[in-house]
Specification:
It is a single chain. The protein has 270 residues and is α/β, with parallel strands linked by helices. The chain has a single domain, classed as Rossmann fold (3-Layer(aba) Sandwich), CATH 3.40.50.720. Helices cover 45% and strands 14% of the residues. The chain has ten helices and six strands; from the N terminus they run E-H-E-H-H-H-E-H-H-E-H-E-H-H-E-H. It has helices spanning 22-32, 43-48, 51-58, 70-84, 99-102, 112-136, 163-185, 208-218, 226-237, 262-268; strands spanning 10-14, 36-40, 88-93, 139-149, 188-194, 248-251. Strands 2-1-3-4-5-6 form a six-stranded parallel β-sheet, sandwiched between helices. Helix 1 (22-32) runs parallel beside helix 3 and helix 6 (112-136) runs parallel beside helix 7. The longest helix has 25 residues, at 112-136. The mean pLDDT is 95.
Length: 270
């Protein structure tokens, strides 16, 4: 059901790869709520994914951008503002990549060159996006930026590897830049810590199916789906959450504050 929560708003969605992507689901919901969109991803992801299908569904242009390349980001924002005929109201940062995970490197033996690239793409890319928007005055007053994260930034999930460090840094960037952007233009910057979700990227984590099963048993409401996360993103982009900023918002069915559940105890006692 649509409520016109984003009627007249304009936003950029980073990271939609295929129909499993939270960014993909969020783009569909934003469009349903009345937003105009621009879709962006890395050039290699554009070649690998199915984003043209999404672009047709939400009537949005696709503008490729390497998020660690400042020139690419400037071009993306310039073309987006030209397309919109003005400033940008919201941005979704749904970007994460771990070279050490891809290469099968254990956390205790990570390649530091790979690690630097992982942090740059998964975390500092948010800083680059915000800085570019800041310098170009691209975000409208009371704009909203959301980045997707995971509870491994606060708690140990051994197989999440270096992405736990990357998410911790991502959340710190959101808080720090969120302060400055809030003072300057009332722009709010938040992270959403989502349940483990069966995306193409998430499924690459070792033991992911067991991960999801455990989280389902540990969450009083069960795991939040990608579509439910998209709903949450819509509320964060809307004017209903104007006073929420610099927060890490858990969207995980209660997992983050549950010590143990009967389902987990029963499983352990089998």
């Amino acid at each position: 059901m649509a409520y016109n929560l984003l009627q007249g708003k304009k936003g950029i969605i980073f990271g939609a790869l295929d129909e499993k992507s939270i960014a993909w689901r969020t783009a569909l919901r934003c469009h349903e709520e009345g937003a105009q969109l621009v879709l962006s991803n890395a050039p290699v992801a554009l070649r690998m994914g199915e984003i043209k299908k999404l672009a047709d569904a939400v009537n949005a242009p696709v503008i490729g951008a390497d998020v660690v390349n400042m020139d690419d980001l400037r071009k993306l924002l310039e073309e987006s503002m030209k397309h919109f005929g003005g400033g940008i109201d919201f941005i979704l940062h749904s970007i994460g990549m771990s070279l050490n995970v891809r290469k099968g490197k254990h956390y205790t033996e990570i390649d530091y060159g790979f690690n630097q690239k992982s942090l740059d793409i998964s975390s500092m890319s948010l800083h680059r996006v915000l800085r570019t928007a800041w310098e170009m005055d691209a975000l409208n007053d009371w704009g909203s930026v959301v980045a997707l994260t995971y509870i491994a930034a606060q708690r140990v999930f051994p197989d999440y590897n270096e992405m736990a460090d990357a998410k911790a840094l991502l959340e710190s960037v959101a808080r720090s830049f969120g302060y400055h952007y809030g003072v300057r233009k009332k722009v709010r910057v938040n992270t959403i810590s989502q349940s483990p979700t069966k995306t193409t990227a998430g499924s690459g984590v070792k033991g992911f199916d067991g991960f999801i099963s455990y989280a389902e048993k540990m969450s009083p409401l069960g795991n939040a789906t990608g579509d439910q996360c998209a709903d949450y993103c819509v509320t964060m982009f809307s004017d209903l959450t104007r006073m929420v900023t610099m927060q890490n918002l858990f969207h995980d069915g209660g997992f983050s504050f549950t010590g143990v559940t009967e389902a987990v105890i029963n499983q352990m006692e089998k």
